[in-house]
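User: Quick sanity check before I run a bigger batch. Here is a single chain. Can you write out its predicted 3D structure?
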Amino acid sequence: METTVTDQQLRGLEKLRAGADLSLRAELTLIALAEAKHWPVASEQEVIRIPHATWSNALTQLDASAFVDVLIPITTVKDRATAARRIREAKDAIRDGRYEHAVALARAALDPVREACNTKKLHDQAVQRKAGERNQEERWAMLTQSAYTLFSGAPHDDAGTTENFTWTRADAVAAVATAAGLLARLEELP
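Assistant: Done. Predicted structure follows.
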């Protein structure tokens, strides 16, 4: 059995799927051509579930999207293990439509990154230099601190600023992906 899906339909499926497994319902009608008096022979509905990873890999092969896996090793370092759990919870929050909560969890997941990489100190040093003069670690610190500051708008309702922030699914996905990527960099550190 085959079907054709247009680009617009594919975008609609992806929007509705929102990172979860893809569920499709097929309505089948079976017809016995040899025995016209029994037409139609049977009707049935089948639900077809395609796991997120399988569907995402298929889309990548079609050049219809890109899919990035970020593996965050669970280490014996308690804060990093907690951060990895927060990333998992944030993914669940996105699936459930709780985007602000997902961003807040992404912010919390950055705590061990900020500590292990001493990003606050490096950031404060780096802002004194021109962007082109910053070394690699200072640039990572700038990214980490900027992400942390942006994501801090989710758990706070500061009058006149963060109280007016709104978070979309795309915002939450970007926040969680950023935090996950920065957290995964810690694998090389003791």
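The chain has a mean pLDDT of 85.

User: Great, the batch can go ahead then.
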